[in-house]
Write a structure and sequence with these properties.
Elements lengths: L6 E5 L1 E5 L2 E5 L2 H11 L2 E5 L8 H5 L4 E4 L24 H16 L4 E4 L1 H9 L4 E2 L19 H4 L4 E5 L13 E4 L6 E2 L6 E6 L5 E6 L6 E4 L11 H20 L2
Bound molecules: ligand LF53FM6H.
C-alpha cells in the first residue's frame, strides 16, 4: 500500500530484572519515529539467535539503532578489557550489528544514535575510546546525573560541522549545539565512513556512510530528544524521513 505509514525498526536492550529478562527501549526513541518521521515504530527485541534479521528487514522501511547505558564489548574492536562491573549487553551488540549489516546490504535507511553511532563505527572496522574523559586534551562528555532529565539532554557543547557535509547542508550554520550523554567515543574511524561533525575537543560526533545511494547517518548525541523543539534535530529526522519514504516507494 503506497500510502501506508513507514515501519521503522527500533533496537532494544536486553536487561536482567531477575528472574526476568526484559527487552526495553527509551520512550524518546519510539516517540521520535512518530514525531520526526511520521512513521510507525516497531521495537526489535535483542534476540539475535531467534530472530531472522533478513525476514524482519523484509517488513521494514528503515532502522533506528538506539543509545544505551551499556557498553559495546571490546572484543568487537580488539579493545582492552572493560572495568569490572561495567554494564554490557551481548545480545544487543549482536542484534544491532546484524541489523546494521543487513540494512546497509539492502540500502535501507539507517539512523544510529549514541551507542548506535559507536556500533556503526565498529561494524566498519573502527575502534572506541572507552573513557573519553581520561584521554589527554579531551572533554568529559558524560551527563551529570545530579541534573534533571531536561537539563541532562539540553545542548551542552558545540558541534563543528564538516563543510559540504550532509549536516552542514541543512543551512543551520557551521556550528550547532548538541547534548552529550556518553563515556565512550570514536578512537579510530571505520573504513568507508565520513566525518560530519566534531566536538570542540576534536572528538568525532557525527558520521555517515560514504555512499550516494544509501542513507546511513550516525550521531553521538541525541537528536531524538524533543525532536520537534530543536531545528537541527528536526532537520536530521526530516532527512531520515525523506530517505525512508524513498525506500518505501521503491520497495513496494
Ligand atoms: N554507553 C555508551 C553509549 C552512550 C549512550 O547511548 N547514552 C545514552 C543512554 C541513555 C539514552 O538512551 O538516552 C557510552 O557511554 O559511550
Amino acid at each position: 500500500m503506497r500510502d501506508a505509514l513507514p515501519l521503522i525498526g527500533v533496537t532494544s536492550d536486553r536487561s536482567n530484572e531477575a528472574p526476568h529478562h526484559l527487552h526495553q527501549v527509551g520512550e524518546k526513541y519510539v516517540k521520535s519515529i512518530v514525531d520526526g518521521v511520521n512513521g510507525l515504530p516497531v521495537i526489535i527485541p535483542a534476540l539475535p539467535n531467534e530472530i531472522d534479521v533478513e525476514k524482519l528487514l523484509d517488513r521494514l522501511d528503515g532502522v533506528m539503532i538506539t543509545g544505551s547505558y551499556s557498553m559495546l564489548e571490546p572484543h568487537h574492536y580488539d579493545g582492552p578489557a572493560l572495568q569490572p562491573g561495567t554494564l554490557i549487553d551481548p545480545a544487543r551488540d549482536a542484534m544491532s550489528m546484524s541489523l546494521i549489516k543487513g540494512a546497509i546490504a539492502r540500502k535501507m535507511p539507517v539512523l544510529c544514535i549514541c551507542r548506535g553511532f559507536q556500533e556503526l563505527n565498529v561494524v566498519y572496522g573502527g575502534t572506541l575510546h572507552q573513557a573519553v574523559h581520561n584521554e589527554a586534551g579531551m572533554l568529559d562528555h558524560r551527563d551529570d546525573k545530579s541534573l534533571t532529565f531536561a537539563e541532562q539532554y539540553a545542548p551542552t557543547h558545540d558541534l563543528e560541522l564538516t563543510e559540504g557535509g550532509l549536516l552542514a547542508s541543512f543551512g543551520l550554520g557551521q556550528t550547532v549545539q548538541v547534548n552529550s550523554i556518553h563515556e565512550q567515543g570514536i578512537k579510530d574511524l571505520g573504513q568507508g565512513l565520513l566525518i560530519e561533525g566534531r566536538a570542540p575537543d576534536g572528538l568525532i560526533e557525527a558520521i555517515r556512510l560514504d555512499s550516494d545511494d544509501q542513507f546511513c547517518l550516525a550521531l553521538q548525541f541525541h537528536p531524538e530528544y524533543r525532536v520537534k523543539e530543536n531545528a537541527f534535530y528536526t532537520a536530521i529526522f526530516s532527512a531520515f524521513s525523506q530517505a525512508v519514504s524513498a525506500y518505501q516507494t521503491s520497495n513496494k
